[in-house]
Design a protein that fits this description.
Length: 208
């Protein structure tokens, strides 16, 4: 082998090594993985990028009550908490909600006036006494449940202590005779044509 041929071979090898190093140092974007030639390609449907190997792999099928985080299955987090990258359940940051589909904390959409957020979608507000189910359909609240004025969901109301009454989803001290709670819990005189209901402690329209 001549000196020129040897120099060319060494130069070619160096170029190849630099290319490989550059390729190895530039990871593929999210959802892409390198093919056998080192080119970044989109993962096929049903495949996810393995965070450890960087290759597209078939994710495991999680059992009921578990969710997929990266390439591992973890028990579902309680309401208001979501998995971090290690699978640990953490509280969602202010302004974020748990996405019911992915189980991750995401920024919820801003609903227009007259709409409420259910999961990660906006729906028209339900009429009084009805609340949204998981699909966004308005349904009657089950016995023993009340519509939460803030979330619009049917929830188990708190049990008020003796001498208190439930107004919306909060407990307030009972009002003196002739007065009843308004929507904020403040005791006020009933308007003409209204009387204080002995059970609920609120002003209700008189019959007739």
């Amino acid at each position: 082998m001549t000196r020129a041929t040897l120099r060319f071979a060494l130069s070619s090898s160096l170029v190849a090594l630099v290319a490989l190093a550059a390729q190895a140092g530039t990871p593929c974007p999210e959802g892409y993985a390198p093919d056998p030639q080192g080119k970044c390609t989109l993962c096929a449907d049903g495949y996810l990028k393995n965070p450890k190997t960087g290759a597209c792999t078939k994710p495991p099928t999680c059992a009921a009550g578990q969710v997929l985080v990266g390439d591992r299955c973890f028990p579902a987090c309680p309401p208001g908490r979501a998995h971090d990258n290690t699978g640990k359940c953490t509280l969602c940051a202010d302004g974020y909600l748990k996405n019911p589909k992915t189980g991750a904390c995401t920024k919820p959409p801003t609903c227009a006036a007259g709409q409420v957020l259910v999961g990660d979608r906006c729906f028209p507000a339900c009429p009084p006494g009805r609340a949204h189910d998981n699909t966004g359909k308005c349904t009657l609240c089950a016995d023993g449940y009340l519509k939460n004025a803030k979330t619009g969901a049917c929830e188990k109301p708190p049990t008020c202590a003796a001498g208190q009454v439930l107004v919306g989803d909060r407990c307030f001290p009972a009002c003196p005779p002739g007065r009843a709670h308004d929507s904020s819990g403040k005791c006020s005189l009933c308007a003409p044509g209204y009387v204080k209901h002995p059970k609920t402690g609120t002003c209700q329209k008189t019959a007739g």
